[in-house]
Amino acid sequence: MKRALTSLLVSAILSLAALGAVVDGQWSAEGSAKTAPKKLSIHVNQNSLSGTMDGMAITRSGVDGGFFWFYVVRNGADFLYKGQIKGGKIELRESGPHVHRTLTFTRVQ
């Protein structure tokens, strides 16, 4: 039992480290929806995220394995973003007042 728990803990730590190495950096949105965020700057801090989306601070964030989430206040309203890395891109599900869509971001070179 102890060995299984240790293995699970090591796996979780490695997942967080791998996600941090992949997610950290500057990202730019694909597509041209006028109301969609365009720029994402993100950094993984153990089990949370910091950074900005279109200059607005990322708040209330978390990391769980290969998935992450965060909130951004845009136009006075809370927007929730849930995402993961897929094919070297960040795929985010955006939920806010009257908005439910998927956004894709590519790394800025």
Protein architecture, described:
With 109 residues, the chain is of the alpha+beta class. The chain has one domain: Lipocalin (Beta Barrel). 20% of the residues lie in helices and 56% in strands. A hairpin with a 2-residue loop joins strand 8 and strand 9.
What are the defining features of this structure?
globular, 1 helix, alpha+beta, Lipocalin, nine-stranded antiparallel sheet
Give the rounded overall mean pLDDT: 84
Shape: globular
Residue windows where pLDDT falls under 50 for at least 5 positions: 8-21
- CATH topology, what is it called? Lipocalin
DSSP helical segment count: 1
Helix content: 10-25%
Order of helices and strands: HEEEEEEEEE
Could you tell me how far the N terminus lies from the C terminus, measured between alpha carbons in angstroms?
Answer: 45 Å
Q: Indicate the structural class.
A: alpha+beta
CATH level 1 name:
Mainly Beta
Q: Proportion of β residues?
A: over 45%
- CATH architecture verdict: Beta Barrel
Largest sheet: 9 strands, antiparallel
- How many runs of DSSP E, i.e. beta strands? 9
Query: How large is the radius of gyration?
Result: 15 Å
Oligomer: single chain
Which strand order does the major sheet show?
Answer: 4-3-2-1-9-8-7-6-5
What count of domains describes the coordinates? Answer: 1
Strands, helices and their partners?
Blueprint: H1 2-23, E1 25-29, E2 39-45, E3 48-53, E4 56-57, E5 59-64, E6 67-74, E7 77-86, E8 89-96, E9 99-107
Antiparallel strand pairs: 1-2, 1-9, 2-3, 3-4, 5-6, 6-7, 7-8, 8-9
